[in-house]
């Protein structure tokens, strides 16, 4: 697997591979030294016109097969060249291309090196930007120092290097350090990565390398790839290099959703890339979800709760489906994996799977090189009829094949986790029964009837407390002549903000790359993770810390226990810290993700890639409500006897993927063609066995079989999908690309007899700035690319969804014994077919201000037709489930903007800013025969956003009559999905070794149902707002009427249920959040060397440090009381229902590199 | 040559992989495909399952109507429960469908389906399964006719209460017809239960002579009950749902009933507050376990039907006799009033006590609004005064989900 950010392009990779045997060359050699019959005499086969010199050289390498070594940053960047060199030698072609540039070339040791010529050979001023001499390069300085610090003589005869250390620093043009840059010695194939201060160090093994000219290749996302020549010799060698900013990396390779030419310049649809290594280095993140959060426009992640390890909801470009999942597909190195939730115990109440652990977060962020995100059908067609919600491809780190190096890294982190909220107090007025001197209630005893008292049981029992995280990560990376390896080990122990909130994770990964021949490469990888997640009860579950605390009453507080302790005040009289923390809800998983990828090119024009992989998880769920004699769990019957549930689940997913590519060129017509074809087969199997028992003899014998009554349950599900695709990509002059593709898919959800689902795609990409007519503008706007793409994907329901089914249901027979019976299940739909998502995407990429400002703008219009809707059936049909039907249409339309600017780039101050912004217009445009339907105060109505809030609206507050007139029927009351989402990330690098990073996030245009407040105001009547006078924090008369009623229908005059008038509690969720803040200090080298390390950095910072949500009355508008449901109507339900809000954390992290 | 060989090998491997991926037939052992199930051969399973649907729905309906008609109070913090308790519900109240309407509809649909399957068979007229399912479908429809303003059967058009009750009567008649030719114990039970059900529907419909006549055939000691077992994994379906619900902290015996000190209304002070933190929790003790049966039809009810029907025809004797007997059972002094309205009120009073938590009170109140006791009056402050006042007692509206998805409502 080729990873973005590791090695720039196929040409660069070829250069790297072929530059291994580079020999000696004199720096100021004659302009051309051709050896008869050598590389320079080979046919050039080159036919280019008005393209950049660098592109022309790349083409020459590709077409002639002759490796060229040079420093791109030294080439005149804006120089455009033409060369009709189809029938001339490489030497002649180089003469033509390099004419006037001041560059010379020389063949040596199997490659041709381009080096600056003598001073006199430099181009005249004004012809092109002057090329500086070696000693005074504006963008590059290479200083060669001998062992004694003196300038070494030029080495003209090969000699073995006895001991050499190449060290230096990599800075941006302004002088700021560039961290995370890959530095590779082209001759020795040794490599290193720069630390936080931009420093690197490569130790050349003794006696392995011949002395002579070499070059360091520098690569980093966001910068142009650069080669820096230097002389390899004994002793210390210092090479300081400057990486030029590159706001738009058109030559970056993207592997997700692409075939044929995988350079970004050839891709018609935008594919987002997250530099995972950089995010891990500077951000306070603990998992993959946080790595994705607010990094790319169009990706909306809602954290859902503060429960440790709980999954988040991920929406890309809105919500396309009503009944099927809106979560994107997740691939790991080309292999489909489970990125959803692991709902093996239900801690969220009967209606939800709420705070379930995340399968996506099993992955160790430290193992990830980059993440690519395919946002919609325009780019996701190659992923078939199930990819309409987007695709996330996680690319793990690989070894440094050919580097003959070994590097290792240790990361220690400690997090201080804070609840980030205060549970409000409960209020009530003392009753006559509680004021007597003998009253058990210490709050009312001796008071007057009606005295207002308050209690805060959560604070009294210390329900929410500070948690912590301790983690350690180790990674090793290296390689030999024809192999590379990466290995990691991670350990993390986290304690959340309640007693039984815990996550323990142990993970390991080994990736191995082996290339026995240049035509054949094997990549094998294996990830292994063991997680154990203990979850507190949350959301609507009656035994959650939050619900028990905020729905309690001061009137139930008692101090009549023998020890005089204060008890009660909670939702249940028997609740205590001990009773809540004694409940065990645990999910464990052992997961292995093996993969093998073989890349084989039997001939240069035909390449093949086969990927085989699996995602295998053995999960267990365990839940215990212990036996007790305190009446702790009053609704678990028989009360106090204890009950236990145990679940074992095996999830297996297999991927077989083939991609072939035939490349052809017609130099005379300047055309290139890539015909790609492939097949993808994915099988997913899930089996579950569960047991439940009630009535335990003791709490130490908690097997299901130890229970007085025990029962068993089993589940099984399987799905298969198979797709074939073909794509033709035509490139003209390497700057205009056209794509046509077609994928044919079949899915087990519809059975073998159902026809194939066809998914076409079209696209075009045009690098306008490389056209001759752009020359006049290139000084102002050096890079511009226009792109347009149209594509189709879909979303398939689960297998069996089309069938009319029965469900099992027990009955009591004539003898009073249980038998298994059946009842109607799903009416089914024989005509069922996948949802079809079509998307048109238009956009441009541009670099401005001398590559200091990069812009990526995209407008998208995604339409989901044949929308699968679980059409609520008339209850009188008798069916228990709602059948799926292909009904209706949803549109998601919007604009995405990504700006990357470096306003200041000086030696001691670099300021980097990234802005992501996206808008979303989501609208149900039709529901066919289903018509409008309402489900739990959310409606699916043409003309409105999907699942828009739909409640009875307040027409008039009649203060005189003390009543509120409300609409006769429910009406629109707000959106669920934010219509605007933006994030601003900025990094300040000071004095080259201190980096301060902050990320702000904004979401607006949506509403959240604040059921916490509603319950406290209306039902429990325990809120301060209801109990305190208007001037002291209580509602005024009008607001009190608005919230509490009584409500009268405007048409009938009859009472309307308070629960139906939710308007006061459907509250704006608009907010700003200071999501991340860190400061990273690169430790002084003197200290680093003392521990034998090559670099070390200390990071301190915090996450979720500030929240400004003026119109939301709860703790946090991003909680999901119904959890991030994978499917169904409740997946779009922004509600705060007694959910623990996301926590705040402070982190300290130490990273040491060897 | 070597390249050609490799190319062929590569192509062969690719082709094998492609072929391997073509099989899309997957096993779904968790699904019961309707096409693989023979409802005729498994008519007993279908019918018994549908019977359990009634047992389950019956308990749900008892709990829900008890709250709406004042037999119990709510100690829950859910606002929907408060709204039902104070009779302020609209058609989008989710409990209206979930706790009242949908359970009844599941009973009707599944039992009618059994009858439809068996109808074409030669032994339909002697099929105990057809009789059983006719009985429970009849009861569910009769209950719908008693408490809903409109009835719906199998996604059909809205029916008036009288039409709905007629539909129930048809099913009871079928049950009677079939079981009259059978002699098993279950057949006899169905026979008498169908008589009670039919008489109940006739009474509610106002066909007093017919109601009295039908009920008079029921033996005085006859009892047909919904039976339950304790299975932790299916308590929601197979256990006594009234006991299950009352064992929590959200159902409180209403003060009107507690004050009666009638042994027919057993309750206990739970010694604490309900879920809402302020209402003292009094639990019912009529049902004391998951396996306690709930009476569906009985000779006693038949006598009540006869008494009420005759009373409405001007004959007070049966009512007075029954009142005398039931007051004795309730340790009450003899009843002396002789006026017909007072007798009807007392008859309904005794009926409210005898059938407390048996799902009759709401229907009684709708049938005899002025004579049925223990119904908080409209405009009276709710027992949680800050929630407002009681709304008017009316029949229940058809839930929105039925109106929205039943083409006959558009």
Q: In one word, what is the shape of chain A?
A: globular
Tell me the total number of β-strands of chain A: 59
Largest sheet strand order of chain B: 2-4
Count of DSSP-assigned helices of chain B: 16
Low-pLDDT windows of residues of chain B: none
Keywords:
heterodimer, A: 1154 residues, mainly beta, 22-stranded antiparallel β-barrel, 13 helices, disordered N terminus, B: 410 residues, mainly alpha, Serine Threonine Protein Phosphatase 5, Tetratricopeptide repeat, two-stranded antiparallel ribbon, 16 helices, 7 strands, globular
Give a description of the structure:
The complex is a heterodimer of chains A (1154) and B (410). Chain A has 1154 residues and is mainly beta. Chain A is built from 13 helices and 59 strands. Chain A has a 22-stranded antiparallel barrel. In chain A, strands 46-47-48-49-53-54 form a 6-stranded mixed β-sheet, with helices on one face. In chain A, helix 1 packs across helix 2 and helix 2 runs antiparallel to helix 3. Chain A is globular and about 105 Å long. Chain B is mainly alpha-helical. Chain B is 52% helix and 7% strand. Chain B has helices spanning 2-20, 43-68, 79-85, 94-119, 128-147, 161-179, 185-205, 208-215, 235-238, 241-246, 255-258, 299-312, 317-329, 340-354, 361-367, 400-405, and strands spanning 32-33, 72-74, 223-226, 251-253, 267-273, 280-284, 294-298. In chain B, helix 4 packs antiparallel against helix 5. The longest helix of chain B has 26 residues, at 43-68. Chains A and B meet through strand 29, strand 30, strand 31, strand 32 and strand 33 of A and helix 1, strand 1, helix 2, helix 3 and helix 4 of B.
